[in-house]
Design goal:
C8orf32 fold; globular; alpha+beta; five-stranded antiparallel β-sheet
Length: about 160
């Protein structure tokens, strides 16, 4: 049997998911925020690579809806606490949540507005050339993506939303 790195990654994610609870997404607003804070404290103790994979995996299991804000209009983006406490996420909201999680844990990252399959989406660039939120639950090499990158932001560019 031929095993690709993607297959191994999916198996590893499956093992992690077996022990993962997603019930925090169904807590009240305060419960969601507390669960997110507790999880970020665990992230802060991980090395950057492990933290990025954990972020990709954790945000894979959010309750999805079609659209929560306009990814083209930065002024519609919620701050981190509003995003998490609302508890509904479109694909761009997943990316914004990943970005917020990493920034608040001190992991250097950039938020990217990209077009994938003619749809806008917020992605996160980490570790030099890795992307989060291209595929659910995965950290991929940006060189293998077909995303058309339109704009990027450092955490300092979004200081009105998240202060670090």
């Amino acid at each position: 049997m031929v095993t690709t790195s993607r297959t191994v990654l999916q198996v590893n994610i499956s093992i992690v998911v077996e022990h993962r609870s997603t019930e925090h997404w169904f807590f009240d607003k305060q419960g969601k925020l507390q669960a997110w804070r507790d999880w970020r404290l665990q992230l802060s103790e991980m090395d950057a690579e492990s933290a990025c994979q954990e972020v990709a995996t954790w945000w894979k299991f959010v309750p999805l809806v079609t659209k929560t804000f306009d990814p083209w209009r930065e002024e519609t983006w919620p701050d981190p606490w509003t995003l998490v406490s609302n508890g509904s996420f479109c694909p761009s909201a997943q990316g914004l949540g990943m970005f917020y999680s990493l920034v608040l844990c001190g992991v250097d990252s950039r938020l990217i507005l990209a077009v994938i399959n003619e749809q806008p989406r917020l992605l996160v660039e980490v570790l030099g050339n890795k992307l989060l939120n291209y595929y659910d639950g995965e950290v991929i090499d940006a060189n293998f993506s077909e995303a058309q990158i339109l704009k990027h932001w450092a955490s300092s560019d979004l200081a009105r939303l998240v202060k670090v």
